[in-house]
Amino acid sequence: MEKRARFRSAWLPYLLVAPQIIVTIVFFFWPAVQALYQSMLLQDAFGMSTDFVWFDNFKALFADPSYLASFQTTALFSVLVAFLGLAISLVLAVFADRIVRGATLYKTFLILPYAVSPVVVGVLWMFLLNPTLGVVAHALRHMGIEWNNLLNGRHAMILIVLAAVWKQISYNFLFFLAGLQAIPKSLIEAAAIDGAGPVRRFATIVFPLLSPTSFFLLVVNIVYSFFDTFAIVEATTQGGPGKDTEILVFKVFNDGFKGGDLGSAAAQSVILMSIVIILTVVQFKYVEKKVQYS
After folding, report:
1. If DSSP codes are grouped into helix, strand and coil, which group holds residue 147?
2. Contacts from 28-35 at CB under 8 Å and sequence distance 24+?
3. Quick one: 144 exposed, middle or buried, by C-beta within 10 A (0-12, 13-18, 19+)?
4. Per mean pLDDT, which range of 48-57, 80-89, 111-120, 202-211 is the poorest?
5. Does residue 50 sit in helix, strand or coil?
6. Rounded to the nearest 10 degrees, how much is the dihedral formed by the CA atoms of 7, 11, 17, 20?
7. Which residues are paired to 51 by β-bridges?
8. What is the pTM for the complete model shown?
9. Per-residue model confidence as pLDDT tens digits over 61-85
10. In whole angstroms, what is the distance from residue 36 CA to residue 57 CA?
11. Cα-Cα-Cα-Cα dihedral of 32, 35, 40, 42, to 10°?
């Protein structure tokens, strides 16, 4: 017999969800509306007056080669962060799931990086890969690799990708480990008895059962690479050398707060938000079709 919770007061359900609704309106919908309105304004050089210019800020952006270049930079950065972050986290989770002795210690060490702030992560990797003082850069030099992220755009991109992936690995690891532990061991044991090797068991049993977790983490990592990596870029490369690591979210800050072009920065925010929404919808519409929910 189906049981349902019934509220005696008709207003109580609305009262219970009111805090979440208020937070969503105040911190999401209202700023989004403000950004959309600001994106259609043009300020003078001193910020004393504004003109309503409709979609001129958007037209100027898509005619700007540097803004179009930041699209390519962001696309490359987000793909690398999402792919490497998920792949490395999954491998670590698989190995951690098999460890019996000292499992808690290993898992604790793998979770710790998530507690570190993005700014600290950026500074840490900046010192590790500093061309003159960095330990990792010194080791690379002994291997015949002349590392210099201050002058080489590819090296700078590798630096921010490594920092962003390292920061996100713990989050991905937690979900993958929980997903692995939820898989019935009897299925894996039955496949082993039938003669399936470790690789085949993982490809035909483990990974399909992990597809809901993988899909969720794919969406989260794409959003992370677009929005939550600003502090890492600011602490390490500041968009340089040149504009080789100027991702979209950093360009919003650069043009709005450093350049003083608030209208253009607001337009970039609207475009960035639209891109993430579109990517999320596409993932839910097409990628989710291959997800197997048990």
Report:
1. coil
2. 32/273, 35/266, 35/269, 35/270, 35/273
3. exposed
4. 48-57
5. strand
6. -170
7. 42
8. 0.86
9. 889 899 999 989 999 999 999 999 9
10. 11
11. 170
